[in-house]
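Let us work through a complete example step by step.
Step 1: write down the sequence.
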Amino acid sequence: MIRYSFFTKVTLVIVGLLSVTLITISLAAMYAIDSNLKARVQRELDTGARVFLQSLATRTSVLQDKVEVLAKDFAFRRAMATGDQATVESALANHGQRAGAGAVMWLDQDGRLRASTHHDASGSPPFPFPVLLDAAANQSATGVINLSEGLFQVVLVSIRVPHHIGWILMGFPINDELAQEQKNLTQMDISWLYSNKRDNLEILSSTLSAGDRAMLSNRTLPQLQEAHVEGILNLEQRYVTRLQELDGAGAEGARALLQISLDEAYAAYRELQWQLALIALLALLVSGVSALFLARSVSRPLEKLRAASARIASGNYSVEVEINSGDELQLLANTFNSMQRDLSDREERIVYQSQHDLLTGLPNRTVMLDRVETAIARARRENKAAALIAFNIRRFKEINDTMGQNAGDQVLRISAERLRSSLRATDTVLRLGSDDFLVVLEAGDAESLRIVGSNLIAKLSQRMEIDELQIRVNYMGGAAFFPEHGDNVEDLLRRTDIALNMAREHHESLHVYNNGEDEQHLRRVQIIADLPDAINKAVMFMVYQPKVSMVDRRASHVEALVRWIHPEFGFIPPDEFVTLAEQSGNVKILTHFVIRTVICQLRAWQDAGLHANIAVNLSALDLLDHSLPDVVQAYLNTYKVHPECLTFEITESALMQDPELAIRVLNMLKKNSIRLSIDDFGTGYSSLSQLKRLPVDELKIDKSFILHIEPNTDDAAIVRSTIELGHNLGLKVIAEGVENEEAWELLDSFGCDFVQGYLISKPMKPDDFTSWWKEHSAQH
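Step 2: predict the structure and record it as tokens.
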């Protein structure tokens, strides 16, 4: 492959661009001249055509006047009326001679030729142009007809004394003399043509040269019509043409071909085209010389800039480029030198930013491993302890949502400053994520490091001023120590994270990792991993606990509860694996499994004659799934179960994540005739105004108020008030956790609608529940 120097490339590019530009301009100019010339010639053709038609109209008018003079002659009309042949022929000849007509004819009232100045009228032959006779039936008509002597422009006038007695026709020949006369008038070549039924052409007269006239005679009418569209006939010269139809009776085969020579029009522009070509050639030569000079003046400074670029690429920013040309290249060199300095500064900033959080200025996750390794190495070297403490802001999202993003940023900056100001110079505080911080405490004794962690939580929890408001932000922390909880970075970081999760789950301000919590963490990980497989393989199963009506003591309602016997861990409480399903994103498939299983069981029980309403618990994330109502309806349709047989129980806390979306989903379920119940009522945070907005049918009092209920206690007062509140809102009230007769009697006295608990029955598998229900139904 041939390689060219920059100097050669610049020269070739400049010369090439100028050449292309000049050629383009020249071609554009020539094209513009050509287009303008054709447009001008076309306009001249349009104008000439109008003049041509006007001259024919004028000639027809003159001819008509002359015929009418003869038609009004009294002696002539009397001769026609009496059939005086000699007098009529004499009058025709005299008037035709005075008018300069080429043909004068007398036609009787039947349209037969009686006398003519140039035809044999013996035998009174019929007039060969009946269309012209029809046109002149009332008075007169004009037209162009083809007689044996050639084309004639004629006027035919009806003679009446007063009734119609015949016609007088006078015609002027259309010949070369007329064509030349019209060419002088219109500045166009004019050819008079006549075509027969086979579209063969006869040139009757023309102003064309003998050669063009001979070539034109070989054309057919379709060829001329095509040439008319294209605008040019392939004759000796190039012409812009128009095939002009003629007005008047009898003119079907007669046409005029109007032409203007393009070659003659182009002749005036030939010299201009040669001048343009000469100018382009001279400009090209001058541009070539200029390109050589310009390429040399540019290539040398650019070579210096190239060498400087190589130095910068190698990381050397110390040598500046020196160009003293006094023009833009010197300015470019100065800019290049400024760029070197900026690059040096920017690299330093990039290194800093890659290792620090821009909002708080703290080191970030990039340097975390290095700082932790350094702390472990020092503690090992000095035979002391080191600590990792991870901090997280509780409900930080609510701060952003309620007070705004700017307030959240202020909280993070103040938190970072409090952590930084509370540590030694050897310690490190890092920001790991949105609201996550990590403190690395270097060598010290384990007890003092625990005290430092507690002090940090206390310092963080102090009130802070945000947008002129005094607020208290809650934090949680998880700590792990070297070497007590691990002797390497990976173990310490994992166990610090486990400790933070424990603080979150148990609502502690600071949780220090305890040996064995790794196993709990691994248990949760294993449960999350096994959960989808357990659902898909139907390892999970449903149990059913009846609800008894306090009115008729019948068990017409039942609650469905999901159970899981793990092959390794045995029975796993629903609260544990449902929470992990929510955290891992598997709650949707778990909910669908439960709903499908329950509706299928409803179908089976109804077929067996057991009719009951089954309640199913929904999680908080289920209420954020706007597709849930359609999924439920699809299962109901599949198993042909009425929606009023199904109740969904939701907790007050589940409504708090996104109340508006949750209420929309509940309204959609309610619209599908599904019953809704608020579960664990009294333990959540919903207000009475929010309760009024919920489309629910039931309140279910939490069992914590029922298990140890006694007369004249606070729990009894709360339960009584809740039942009254539910009834006043038009809701049914259910009490769960009924385990003794005393609670039963007390709830009955309060007017509770349904009760549920071990006093009635523990949750049972479907077959056991069927047997229990049959026995219960027999008793009631």
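Step 3: interpret the result. The chain has a mean pLDDT of 83.
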